[in-house]
Specification:
Number of helices: 6
Largest sheet: 3 strands, antiparallel
Oligomer: single chain
Radius of gyration: 29 Å
Helix content: 55-70%
Length: 128
C-alpha cells in the first residue's frame, strides 16, 4: 500500500460526510486507544486558554533557606534574630545547622527582603 501524503488524506476527508468522518474518528480511537476529544477541544479554547494552560502557576508563598553563614557568622545570627522571633541560642543553632529554613511560607516581598538582608550580612541564601 502506498503511503498517502497529508494533502491526500485531507482530500479524502473532504469527500466524507460528517457521519462517515465521525465513524472514522471512532474507529481511529479504538484502533490506537487514543481520544481525539482533547485535541479537538484545544483549538476551540482559543489562544488565551491555551496560553493560560502553558503558563506555570505563579507562587505566592516562598521559603527562605540559609545555605551557609559565610565568614561573618555573628552578623548573620543578628539578622536571623531580626527576621524571626528566635532567641540568641535558637538563632545560633539555626545558623550552625545550615542549610535550614529561616522563613517559611513568606510572601514574595518579605522573602526578597530577608534574602537581601542575609546576603548583606555575608550569608548564602536560597529562595524556594
Amino acid at each position: 500500500m502506498a503511503k498517502l501524503s497529508q494533502d491526500d488524506l485531507l482530500a479524502q476527508f473532504e469527500e466524507m460526510t460528517l457521519i462517515e468522518l465521525s465513524e472514522f474518528v471512532k474507529a481511529f480511537e479504538d484502533k490506537f486507544e487514543v481520544t481525539a476529544a482533547v485535541a479537538a477541544a484545544a483549538p476551540a479554547a482559543g489562544g488565551a486558554g491555551a496560553a493560560a494552560a502553558e503558563a506555570p502557576e505563579e507562587k505566592d508563598e516562598f521559603d527562605v533557606i540559609l545555605t551557609g553563614a559565610g565568614e561573618k557568622k555573628i552578623q548573620v545570627i543578628k539578622v536571623v534574630r531580626e527576621l524571626t522571633s528566635l532567641g540568641l541560642k535558637e538563632a545560633k543553632d539555626l545558623v550552625d545547622g545550615a542549610p535550614k529554613p529561616v522563613l517559611e511560607k513568606a510572601n514574595k516581598e518579605a522573602a526578597d527582603k530577608a534574602k537581601e538582608a542575609l546576603e548583606g550580612a555575608g550569608a548564602s541564601v536560597e529562595v524556594k
